[in-house]
């Protein structure tokens, strides 16, 4: 996960893939999801105020040799026709929904030119991604940087229509389609469900909720702790007004592949999984820094609750309230079971949308523009994950804004690492790494401990 300002793509010939159709958009009546609605309204407000924004996510990865443009065009055409996320959309200004007939979509390569400077190339791609992903009618940009030894494929889409799981699906499918097109082999992919049905079910379910619904009990307990509202961070961030500030991002290698497996085994012996162990380490470090033995955080969970939803492209993610209390005189071993119970309870509410819960339980009903959170993802089973390193697969985002700290802990086949977004203030820059160093130290200590033979 890299901010585009920190990305240095190797120069080469840039070719974009233009998505065209000879058909007019057709309105649809499925409402946007709660997260889409909040995201798109923020996009519209920023546009109206004339603020530059980057409400997108992107992926870049390498193919061997000089890319075959016809094969890549064929791969993109198959992808955008198969997945509803790339031929349906909502207008940011009024949330009106539209769709294009997928069989009307064509893709053609359009040569942009040769770039010889990495900074110039990155500046061009940043501008083009910002332009194309905020235009409404599928806000996507696809292209390739061609070189003789390796070519870098890139793809960006408005975050309203994608998430991390979707990007993993895209990485695997584009490569499979490309290699099939290069060698003329058939590729039989079943039709994929769309995200609009998920939106419809979410809206129907959330409309039935009230403040007294038992499904909101975890949220009520989470918001009632201490002075209510959302938890602060264990170190001072220099943002007392809780404003949305320019952010900085840091990357922490936490565990090697072997250490991650050893840490998982340690957690299993003490009543939890890898994620529970990570949250227990965060809670234990918080207690050491502040004396607070109650750990609260919003954590990201997938709303793909059934196997049939696994092929769906879209933003099928929710933030749920994780809350647990450390035992007296806590150790990591003691804390893991409590964290596991809290994690399981939080995940049980995967289908209670954050924005609907806050609308019902808070007087102002508003969620933070960018809620601080802690995400844990086991990415080892994602399709194509063992090729990430060889393909230099990189998730790209626009420049960060933050009022608090957000953490993404990702476990890949070769490592577990942590990406942190925080306000770009002297206080946060000094304090947050100290806290995270302690979290990593706790996890490493568990991974390095005595391990009985399996």
Describe it for me?
The protein is α+β, with helices and mostly antiparallel strands and 454 residues long. The protein has 11 helices and 17 strands. It has a 7-stranded mixed beta sheet, sandwiched between helices. A 5-stranded mixed beta sheet has the order 13-16-17-10-15. A 3-stranded antiparallel beta sheet has the order 3-6-5, with no helix packed on it. A hairpin with a 6-residue loop joins strand 5 and strand 6 (97-99). Helix 2 (69-82) crosses helix 4, helix 7 crosses helix 11 and helix 8 packs across helix 11. 41% of the residues are buried. The model has no long low-confidence stretch (mean pLDDT 93).
In short:
The chain is α+β, with helices and mostly antiparallel strands and 454 residues long.
How would you summarize the topology of this molecule?
Blueprint: E1 2-3, E2 13-20, E3 26-28, H1 34-48, E4 56-64, H2 69-82, E5 88-90, E6 97-99, E7 106-114, H3 118-132, E8 140-146, E9 150-158, H4 164-183, H5 195-207, H6 217-224, E10 245-256, H7 257-269, H8 274-290, E11 294-302, E12 317-325, H9 332-348, H10 354-361, E13 374-378, E14 394-397, E15 401-402, E16 406-412, E17 415-423, H11 426-448
Helix pairs in contact: 2-4, 7-11, 8-9, 8-11
